[in-house]
Amino acid sequence: MRYAHQNDLTLVIPIVPKSHYFSLVKPFRKEMVAGAPWEILGYNILCHHLVFNKVAIEAVMPKDSIYLSIVRHPVSMFESLYEYDELQDSILMVRRIDLKYAY
Predict the structure, then answer these.
(1) Which of 1, 29, 38, 44 could hold 9 in an S-S bridge, CB 3.0 to 4.6 Å?
(2) Contacts of 46 (CB under 8 A, 6+ apart)
(3) Is-above-0.70 flag for pTM?
(4) Any idea of the CA torsion for 78, 83, 88, 93, to the nearest 10 degrees?
(5) How would you write the pLDDT of the chain (103 residues) with one tens digit per residue?
(6) What is the Cα–Cα distance from 75 to 52, expressed in whole angstroms?
């Protein structure tokens, strides 16, 4: 994002305030950015978390766009989200008991 700012480029960003996710489960849709005040400027960079949907991204980005993605292993991604979003509080998970000392 710093690069975009320094080079006068526009970013596709979620219209949901204070969010860096478009969605973690639903494929990207043009409507996820539709109506943003900066939409009329066009976009240069899409750099946030989303589920890839080539057709929808092509509708938002310029024709000569280059696609680069980081694909994470599902277990690694879940562990990261679990910690980041503090899921243990929302799904009432408790710590695993060390079975070596449980007997």
Answers:
(1) 44
(2) 11, 12, 57, 60, 61
(3) no
(4) 60
(5) 889 889 999 888 777 766 777 887 889 998 888 777 777 888 999 888 888 999 999 999 999 999 888 888 888 888 887 777 777 676 665 555 555 554 4
(6) 19
Q: Counting Cβ atoms within 10 Å, is residue 10 exposed (0-12), middle (13-18) or buried (19+)?
A: middle
Q: Where are the domains of the chain?
A: 1-69, 70-102
> At 75, which amino acid appears?
V
C-alpha span between 73 and 55 (Å, rounded): 24
Classify burial at 44, counting beta carbons within 10 Å of its beta carbon; exposed 0-12, middle 13-18, buried 19 or more.
middle
Q: What is the rounded CA–CA span in Å between residue 53 and residue 99?
A: 44
